[in-house]
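User: For my dataset I need records formatted as: sequence, then structure tokens, nothing else. Please produce one.
Assistant:
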Amino acid sequence: MAKKTKYYVVWEGRQKGIFDSWSAAEAQVKGYAGAKYKAFESLEAARAAFGGNPQRHIGQRPKADSRSGATGAATPKAGSRRILTAPPVRDSYSVDAACSGNPGVLEYRCVRTESREVVFARGPYARGTNNVGEFLALVETLALCVKNGDPRPVYTDSVTAMAWLRDKKAKTQLREQLSPELRERLERAEAWLASHPYPNRVLKWDTGAWGENPADYGRK
């Protein structure tokens, strides 16, 4: 029988995160003053623990294997050294869009990541695209943050919207097919980006690791 994989949470070390081998985790904590780490029997348990207070877990023995102890030390194993995705920043915003067609009826919104409380919702607009909605949601969230002096990060699952944001230009090939209201919103968004810096980090939402974006409309 193959040996069961353990997952190692490092709360304090040279590099924080979740590791799928003891040798990779050990490199982060060995000789590091104040290191905090522990082994878990499942990736789900490790992710939940990493997002919480380490004091709730350090000193508690895992049910399935009491040999892991408080530090999570275990026999090193061969195999992957990949660092697994850390949880998202809870105190942040998430944006998403939904469009029924290309072009089609478009909606987009911003929510608080942890509570999923809606900060704003726009639409429906006729003749929009999903990429346009994702871009507008990002820019309007950043504009709101600058207005309120809010430095919290913003998550999106759209690589295209992030690229347009970096270029300060919505490089859609369907601009002329958009509704007049959406074309006007795009022009305002691009003008804002050209004249306003923003302190917020714009981060990619890891759907594979974390599930659907909290702002997702659930219409897939």
